[in-house]
């Protein structure tokens, strides 16, 4: 199967036809997509194919990026922009896939001007104007409650107006003041919870920076929407308005 999808996407045809059995095999690993009604599920598939035509995948350290991996990443990357549009990911093409977590060398200068070098073990990283780096795990090895693809692509959305600050460009119908208050208050409260070593719905990594709080909250919005809604209702409402999706209430809306 490896390479079949690449050949299909390279053909000069308006839409690639991916076998239904392949879609189903990939989507079984992504049960959080089940909140989407049938029409939106098909739109997500169509967007994933368009995404794959536009982006270039590379396996790090000789890792074989299979058709299933590419489709899985594409579906997850397109979920946040299903109602925003793929133009949000314009200006870059590269996606580098690692077999599990990986190490990035870092350099940090302290207050005395001394440079410190260290190896940072990460699951992913998004570069402004550059590629997205993501780890891929076998199904039984994936970290629980973490979605590195949604996390890193949330960073890409955040970078649309420069830098990573937890404040992506908002659509015209949204209030910058309401966003700032919702996320600012929630971030402050969350950092207090982490400092006091309380159990938290969000990964404690969200306390590292407002940009990480936005990315981790975006993960939770899709993976654990009820938990996010209960814990940080104003953040949930802002994300629902931004992503123009409402996974916590999807069953009520579709009648399922």
Automatic annotation (TrEMBL):
<dbReference type="InterPro" id="IPR010384">
    <property type="entry name" value="MtfA_fam"/>
</dbReference>
<dbReference type="InterPro" id="IPR042252">
    <property type="entry name" value="MtfA_N"/>
</dbReference>
<protein>
    <submittedName>
        <fullName>Zinc-dependent peptidase</fullName>
    </submittedName>
</protein>
<dbReference type="InterPro" id="IPR024079">
    <property type="entry name" value="MetalloPept_cat_dom_sf"/>
</dbReference>
<dbReference type="Pfam" id="PF06167">
    <property type="entry name" value="Peptidase_M90"/>
</dbReference>
